[in-house]
Amino acid sequence: MLYQINEKTQHSLKQYTITIHEDKYQVHLIATRCGRDWNVILAGGDSHHVGAAVLGIPAYIDGDRNRPTVTLSSMCVPGHKDDELAQLVACELVRHFSATVSVSVGIHMDQASAEDIRWFSKAALLCSRRLEEQVKMTDCENE
User: Fold this and answer.
1) Which CATH number fits domain 2-112+127-141: 3.40.50.2000, 3.30.230.90, 3.40.190.10, 3.40.50.2300?
2) Cα 117 vs. chain centroid, distance in angstroms?
3) What distance in Å separates the CA atoms of residue 92 and residue 40, rounded to the nearest whole number?
4) Which residues contact 104 (CB under 8 A, 6 or more apart)?
5) Does position 50 have pLDDT exceeding 70, yes or no?
6) Is the overall model pTM greater than 0.90, yes or no?
7) Quick one: angle between helices 114-141 and 82-97, nearest 10?
8) For the segment 113-137, what is each residue's pLDDT rounded down to a tens digit?
9) pLDDT for 13
10) Do 3 and 14 contact (CB within 8 A), yes or no?
11) Which helix H or strand E contains 97, and what residues bound it?
């Protein structure tokens, strides 16, 4: 797998781009930090698009800060299944950053097999974790 991470800053927004490529597969995660919060785009496959959008927010069971959870709101284009990956990525990033996260996903592969879907799911989670690592490294350098 080839990993590529780019980072650029404009004004008070900081943007990260992570690409994972392997054989016939490719996924791009573009994340913009908006203060404490995040806007994330995950795209890949044969044609990029917007198939689903998820808004994730940190929440607490019965208001108890020792019992964190995530609340998600999803919208999906009829006939698409991108909401599953959007929810996966949103949950991961909300838990890690304890911040509000919006995730838009559009991954399409003609006649995707179960193996193809597994690869994209793993890659989506890996992109999220690479983002977390990059942010941690960047934040440590700025201290």
Assistant:
1) 3.30.230.90
2) 16
3) 12
4) 40, 41, 42, 50, 52, 53, 86
5) yes
6) no
7) 20
8) 999 999 999 999 999 999 999 999 8
9) 81
10) no
11) helix 82-97
